[in-house]
Amino acid sequence: xxxxxxxxxxxxxxxxxxxxxxxxxxxxxxxxxxxxxxxxxxxxxxxxxxxxxxxxxxxxxxxxxxxxxxxxxxxxxxxxxxxxxxxxxxxxxxxxxxxxxxxxxxxxxxxxxxxxxxxxxxxxxxxxxxxxxxxxxxxxxxxxxxxxxxxxxxxxxxxxxxxxxxxxxxxxxxxxxxxxxxxxxxxxxxxxxxxxxxxxxxxxxxxxxxxxxxxxxxxxxxxxxxxxxxxxxxxxxxxxxxxxxxxxxxxxxxxxxxxxxxxxxxxxxxxxxxxxxxxxxxxxxxxxxxxxxxxxx
Amino acid sequence: xxxxxxxxxxxxxxxxxxxxxxxxxxxxxxxxxxxxxxxxxxxxxxxxxxxxxxxxxxxxxxxxxxxxxxxxxxxxxxxxxxxxxxxxxxxxxxxxxxxxxxxxxxxxxxxxxxxxxxxxxxxxxxxxxxxxxxxxxxxxxxxxxxxxxxxxxxxxxxxxxxxxxxxxxxxxxxxxxxxxxxxxxxxxxxxxxxxxxxxxxxxxxxxxxxxxxxxxxxxxxxxxxxxxxxxxxxxxxxxxxxxxxxxxxxxxxxxxxxxxxxxxxxxxxxxxxxxxxxxxxxxxxxxxxxxxxxxxxxxxxxxxxxxxxxxxxxxxxxxxxxxxxxxxxxxxxxxxxxxxxxxxxxxxxxxxxxxxxxxxxxxxxxxxxxxxxxxxxxxxxxxx
Lengths: 297, 384
Known about the structure:
The complex is a heterodimer.
Chain A: H1 2-32, H2 39-56, H3 60-83, H4 91-113, E1 118-119, E2 129-132, E3 135-138, H5 139-161, H6 163-173, H7 175-180, H8 185-211, E4 213-214, H9 220-233, H10 238-258, H11 267-281
Antiparallel strand pairs in A: 1-4, 2-3
Chain B: H1 2-15, E1 22-29, H2 36-55, E2 64-71, H3 76-88, E3 93-96, H4 100-105, H5 107-113, E4 117-119, H6 126-131, E5 135-136, H7 142-155, E6 160-165, H8 174-184, E7 188-194, H9 203-210, E8 218-221, H10 227-237, E9 243-246, E10 266-269, H11 278-290, H12 298-315, H13 322-330, E11 335-336, E12 341-342, E13 356-361, E14 364-369
Parallel strand pairs in B: 1-2, 1-3, 3-4, 4-5, 6-7, 6-8, 8-9, 9-10
Antiparallel strand pairs in B: 10-13, 11-12, 13-14
């Protein structure tokens, strides 16, 4: 029972990080229909800011907001430079553009910073653990859970009570009508990118605090997980992204924890098999978006 | 194709009966992508060695080295394309990427062109086995490294071990060699776990190990960044205090900047810069040429590779004929490189080189020695 609880805490922490990542993809997708595969590179940028802050001796408390700011700015720039010109292109055009942005950034990191991964100095506190009710919980796990809760509450408030948030929800439902009501497309889309940059930044801090290093290609894996989580939850639906992220985290941790040793090698295919199974029963994801229905033939 | 090769070979032979004026080396290595963290520093070392030799008038004072470089983007198919292009330009020796898989992708071209090829830093002992006569490695084999670390663990009185490995690459299965040697020496392996490369979260594994009825004395893994720091931190924050043993993949600045969690980690690598050692001299030279400190032993490993080719040209009486070079490399003994003396004679292409044991202490290196492993204990290469 103890172990089960302990693994559940692990799953919550991992699922929370996935949820933030998937949300970042979903916010942009719900409005533009673009799956931004360069989302991971926003994390890499935030990671490099943490690294340079560590080298410059900037305290972690200051470094984190700087990293978040960097990824928000990078996200807005990304939209302005790369995605705005192809906004009216087909979904495939935007998808390929996002791959191109990701690759260009990766090569730039490799050439301008280093091909090798660079250490990030982290406060020793993050490697500590606390004892709660007989469980040993790492401080970075706790931070992941708290950060996820804070971000979800913030997002909920932003989407419900902030003008930009409400505009974004309206745009997600029907962009054409929303524009007729006087909502500026540029503002809404830039806002969505800024929000996804913020989510990427928070996820990056959590991600980097575990791995203690940044490398030019580090964005690939998280964006892949986020993509799976977003599909699992229902593309374009924010609540779905959260549900998908948590479910993916739970699937991964529980399989890793409770699959018999001789089956462990097949953990990933089994995990993805479960995802496929869920999609067989709920083809539009766990909590599908009301407006983006997959056509069934 | 073959005709062209014969022609170029004959051409090269006619042009230079004894000492040729240039030795053309083709490097098909990964300057971008997942292998770039290893290949890029190796290439730096290669450049330093070539510049040094050429500045002194070339190999034997006469044969200048010409390096033709191609980026293979860490891709197996691209490696074989690049190698074909290099073969077409008439190179005498080839340098292949730091991993057995892309290197093996080029093996068909290498063997039919009969040009010796050396992987920059692949350490899987299966590479020259599958690769055949023309394929050479340039790093202590995985099975040798595992033997050194298992023997060290036993010497320290550690009787129980746990291994964490990844079946995703040959290199990350090194713990299986470790387990084999450790058990052969009388130790007990309490269990094993697998992960995938780039997994990020190790909390489930850490929780399971922490809950074992008996804590292992040592935990061995050959995972590297970013997996290794995540794994280590997860284990430590779950309360696991076992001695961690790693391998050359974690010979990187990150390992020394992990703070409290990193202290005491022991790993095997290709060399240690003792005072007055060739590696120390190389590091000084590296700083002089590039203006920065060498971050990794892979710089020196690149220097070693050119030293091996230089020694082979000298042993072949200055010939740059690929076949003569292959035979010369296969018979090299005690070539002094930057990291160690290197011997190919009597091996199948996996060199005998020194393995150094390093412990992380006060965020720096503590040298534990370079023990010669007992040949009887070294496990046979395991085909996956």
